[in-house]
């Protein structure tokens, strides 16, 4: 193996080249003071000009340095050259021309001798060439120019109360409060702390274009009328100097490691103007005025905003801006919100019913409000409602000198005397803001919702959800225009003077790039007689195929099945005989032959919410069948929370494959619906709906290849204790590669790294071996759900764990690792509408791998599906590790072709199926967990025992968890009869 080293002389602007030989793969980066790798490395570096052999430089320097590096004990016994934290062991003294030095390959050596880290592979070529059509596109990337000679100063900020409470409890200061404190300090001292040349993250960091004073500063902040001022200690300290020349070096390729701190600092600078003048809701920015927003009813609006981020690309630094629509609660009085949201008329009532009280409490719990009976900026979080009505609440005044009031004062009287306010709704309970055992009750009529509080879209009424969907799914032409308008707004991401003060400017024109449309693959389906036939998707606009006069490739014989009719006692029950006949007929035409069901069990929806009754029902169905059912069709009246109980019990305890459907669809008996139902049934039972006619690209001659998909499902942001659910799926057949087995594991709360990834994969490899009598020689892994800053974890923890586990018995397959990302803001817009049809989206198979992609890494955007609604979002794929030597064309065609093998539909999907299935399996695991928690008594709530967590994860386990059973992997283990079937499909 031969590697080339480059050096730059900062004083004489000379370049040097050298050669190094060693064992293993490695990379050194002297500019960052890092050297990482394995094995033994010999370096012979020649300084001089850019000519070969060390000569031919501007001054003809021919000085040489030879040295020896090793990743082991020998390192401590040899002389060394020190460049920052980089140590080069050498026999000759160093020459200044060697600094800084960079050595680049797939694998680096770290400054720690035992640490051998992998880095993402580099792009193998200049992009792909395969195309049936070139498509001129606009991309929502806006070029950013900056002054590389500038330095951004990063300051660490610590804010705390000057006088801590006597009980010693730390008072948590919220991000909005921290911003208020920062603004007060800067407004009090504008010459020392100029606001327009700083950017604040709302917590720990301030980035500044000028030097700021360091030390401790006292800040007095008024909480409002009737409250004493709070004194804070604001400590600021310079911690880093971020030199933008390093970012330029990274963009041009002379620096290998990503300068993340610089990117984070500049990203914060670009967000500062919008954050200061608008509402920040998660990563999104929304205007405080709601002139263009859409009323969804019930006190909810569809707020229009944007989100933006800086990205290093091949053309340089860009600002990626996208349109955003979120459902948020109106900033209105609490009583008005309740009236609109729950349709309760308070003026016509003198008392609240029990259901009304529960509905109000559920609607308000956890929301933030401000009070209106006095002037204050303080926000309160609603902890619930008082048990007593307002007129019945009495309390003892603190430090009350009036002995007549020592027995307590009424809330009505208190507000009348203290604030000159007469409480109107005396029969209503108050809002409870009590905290740290300090009682604080406020009547609802004096409270107003804080702006920008999100409303869960899954809780929207049907019409509101449809309206929100239509606003979110803007067609390409409209979305593109909205984004261009956002970029030009004064309060937008490019407005204000903050970025200008850092010498950062943004072009307001979208990036132009040429996309390539690659050829769809030929498919293998059954013809009308059930024989295998070749089919070419001839409609390049949608690339979908019809099942009319066609059948699935391999239909299963369904002899033992039953129907569980959960609508038997409903107002509009299932017409069972008609549904069964229509389903059987549709399946027969598709090549899936179904006998008449063994029986049709009558029940109702209430059974789903009672796990004991449901378990008994499923056991009786299993016993009634006398031998194992192939599948149980469950007809439901509506989408019900009890669905999770049905899936968990049937799949982990009883061992019955289930397929649910809704009665209104079942009774209509539409061909399309019944056809989709048949596809899912056949896939779950091990049939093959469609295959690629030719073998997958790059693997045409290979005997056995396995595709693995991995994903982690995390609990919602409001949940602070539930485990994350990891799922790994893998193909178990070749060359069709369309049947999968899955494994589900719980792990620590919100932990993205998949614990025991190697062990899970080895289990799936052994299944492949048992079914095919041979282990796969090649493995391709698709990892979902990780951000750019987690690539290192995937490479050096998950992949390393996999290699270590499977190599332990001499098994050494070649591996390719690819990350799939859908959570990004990049969108593709055709430049000429005449090039596309429908709503103006790009064609399936549209690839972009130049200009808007990473400067060096092997990545690309590909839109594998046809977007009939809204604007298509391409999937971003990054190849992190590659033993197979894929070219850009081969990897892109592999991903595009495999997207045609998804079992549940008759068109290519937007995400590569191994990842799609892993996402479905992880969600199924989430349902298992939620079902466990719903069925567990309150007494089971405790921290997990050490036996239920792996040693590597137990140390980071949260101190308080929903239930120990939620972390017990046994509760997620599939029944033996189902564990190698596509139950998740």
From TrEMBL:
Keyword terms: RNA-mediated gene silencing
Biased composition (Basic residues): 16-26
Domain PAZ: 333-451
SMART domains in alphabetical order: DUF1785, PAZ, Piwi
Biased composition (Low complexity): 939-965
Domain named Piwi: residues: 631-930
PROSITE patterns (UniProt xref): PAZ (PS50821), PIWI (PS50822)
Matches recorded under PANTHER family: EUKARYOTIC TRANSLATION INITIATION FACTOR 2C (PTHR22891)
Family: Belongs to the argonaute family. Ago subfamily.
Protein name: Piwi domain-containing protein
Organism of this sequence: Aquilegia coerulea
């Amino acid at each position: 193996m031969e590697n080339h080293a480059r050096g730059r002389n900062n004083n004489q602007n000379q370049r040097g080249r050298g050669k190094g030989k060693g064992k293993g793969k490695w990379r050194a980066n002297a500019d960052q003071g890092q050297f990482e790798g394995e094995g033994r490395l010999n370096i012979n570096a020649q300084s001089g000009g850019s000519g070969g052999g060390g000569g031919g430089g501007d001054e003809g320097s021919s000085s040489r340095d030879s040295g020896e590096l090793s990743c082991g004990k020998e390192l401590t016994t040899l002389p060394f050259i020190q460049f920052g934290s980089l140590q080069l062991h050498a026999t000759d003294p160093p020459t200044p021309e060697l600094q800084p030095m960079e050595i680049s390959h797939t694998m680096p050596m770290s400054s720690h001798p035992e640490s051998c880290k992998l880095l993402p592979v580099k792009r193998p070529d200049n992009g792909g060439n395969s195309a049936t059509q070139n498509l001129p596109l606009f991309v929502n990337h806006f070029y950013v120019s900056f002054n590389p000679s500038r330095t951004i100063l990063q300051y660490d900020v610590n804010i705390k109360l000057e006088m801590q409470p006597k009980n010693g409890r730390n008072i948590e200061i919220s991000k909005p409060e921290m911003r208020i404190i920062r603004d007060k300090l800067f407004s009090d001292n504008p010459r020392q702390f100029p606001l327009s040349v700083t950017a604040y993250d709302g917590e720990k960091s301030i980035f500044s274009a000028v030097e700021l004073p360091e030390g401790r500063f006292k800040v007095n902040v008024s909480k409002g009328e009737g409250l004493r001022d709070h004194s804070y200690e604001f400590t600021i300290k310079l911690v880093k100097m971020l030199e933008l020349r390093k970012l330029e070096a990274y963009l041009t390729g002379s620096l290998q490691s990503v300068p993340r701190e610089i990117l984070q600092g500049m990203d914060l600078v670009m967000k500062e103007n919008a954050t200061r003048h608008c509402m920040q809701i998660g990563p999104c920015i929304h205007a405080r005025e709601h002139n263009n927003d859409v009323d969804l009813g019930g006190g909810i609006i569809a707020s229009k905003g944007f989100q933006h981020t800086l990205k290093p690309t091949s053309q340089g630094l860009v600002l990626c801006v996208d349109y955003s629509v979120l459902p948020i609660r109106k900033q209105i009085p609490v009583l008005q919100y309740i009236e609109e949201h729950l349709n309760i008329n308070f003026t016509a009532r003198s008392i609240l019913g029990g259901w009304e009280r529960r509905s109000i409490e559920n609607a308000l719990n956890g929301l933030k409000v401000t009070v209106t009976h006095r002037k204050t900026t303080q926000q309160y979080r609603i902890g619930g409602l008082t048990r007593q009505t307002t007129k019945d609440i009495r309390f003892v005044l603190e430090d009350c000198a009036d002995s007549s009031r020592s027995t307590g004062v009424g809330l009505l009287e208190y507000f009348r005397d203290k604030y000159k306010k007469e409480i109107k709704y005396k029969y209503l309970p108050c809002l409870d803001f009590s905290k740290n055992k300090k009682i604080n009750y406020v009547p609802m009529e004096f409270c107003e919702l804080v702006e920008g509080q999100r409303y869960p879209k899954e809780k929207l009424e049907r019409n509101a959800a449809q309206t929100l969907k239509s606003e979110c799914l803007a067609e390409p032409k409209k979305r593109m225009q909205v984004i261009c308008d956002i970029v030009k707004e004064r309060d937008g991401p490019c407005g204000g003077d903050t970025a200008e003060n850092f010498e950062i400017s943004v072009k307001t024109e979208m990036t132009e790039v040429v996309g390539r449309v690659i050829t769809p693959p030929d498919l293998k389906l059954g013809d009308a007689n059930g024989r295998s036939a070749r089919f070419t998707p001839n409609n390049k606009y949608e690339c979908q195929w019809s099942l009319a006069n066609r059948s699935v490739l391999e239909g299963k014989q369904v002899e033992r099945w039953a129907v569980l009719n959960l609508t038997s006692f409903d107002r509009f029950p299932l017409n069972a005989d008609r549904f069964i006949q229509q389903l059987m007929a549709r399946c027969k035409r598709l090549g899936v032959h179904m006998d008449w069901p063994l029986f049709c069990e009558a029940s109702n929806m209430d059974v789903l919410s009672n796990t004991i009754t449901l378990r008994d029902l499923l056991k009786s169905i299993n016993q009634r069948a006398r031998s194992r059912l192939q599948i149980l069709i469950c007809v439901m009246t509506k989408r019900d929370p009890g669905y999770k109980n049905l899936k968990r019990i049937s799949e982990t305890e009883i061992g019955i494959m289930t397929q649910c459907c809704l009665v209104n669809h079942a009774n209509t008996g539409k061909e399309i619906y019944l056809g989709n139902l048949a596809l899912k049934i056949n896939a779950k039972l091990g049939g093959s709906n469609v295959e690629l006619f030719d073998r997958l690209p790059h693997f045409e001659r290979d005997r056995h290849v396995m595709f693995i998909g991995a994903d982690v499902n995390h609990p919602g942001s409001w949940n602070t204790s539930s485990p994350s659910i990891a799922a790994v799926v893998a193909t178990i057949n070749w060359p069709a590669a369309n049947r999968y087995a899955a494994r589900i594991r719980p792990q620590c709360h919100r932990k993205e790294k998949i614990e025991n990834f190697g062990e899970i994969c080895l289990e799936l490899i052994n299944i492949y071996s048992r079914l095919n009598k041979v282990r796969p020689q090649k493995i391709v892994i698709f990892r979902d759900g990780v951000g750019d800053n987690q690539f290192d974890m995937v490479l050096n923890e998950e992949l390393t764990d996999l290699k270590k586990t499977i190599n332990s018995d001499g098994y050494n397959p070649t591996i390719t690792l690819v990350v799939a990302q859908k959570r990004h803001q990049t969108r593709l817009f055709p430049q000429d509408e005449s090039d596309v049809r429908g709503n103006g989206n790009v064609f399936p198979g549209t690839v972009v791998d130049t200009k808007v992609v990473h400067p060096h890494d092997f990545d690309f955007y590909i839109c594998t599906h046809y977007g009939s609604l809204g604007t298509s979002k391409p999937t971003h794929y990054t190849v992190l590790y590659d033993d197979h030597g894929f070219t850009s064309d081969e990897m892109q065609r592999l991903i595009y072709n495999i997207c045609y093998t998804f079992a549940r539909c008759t068109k290519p999907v937007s995400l590569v199926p191994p990842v799609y299935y892993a996402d479905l399996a992880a969600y199924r695991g989430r349902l298992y967990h939620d079902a466990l928690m719903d069925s567990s008594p309150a007494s089971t709530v405790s921290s997990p025992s050490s036996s239920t967590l792996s040693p590597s994860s137990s140390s980071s386990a949260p101190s308080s968890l929903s239930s120990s059973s939620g972390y017990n992997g046994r509760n997620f283990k599939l029944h033996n009869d189902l564990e190698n079937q596509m139950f998740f499909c």
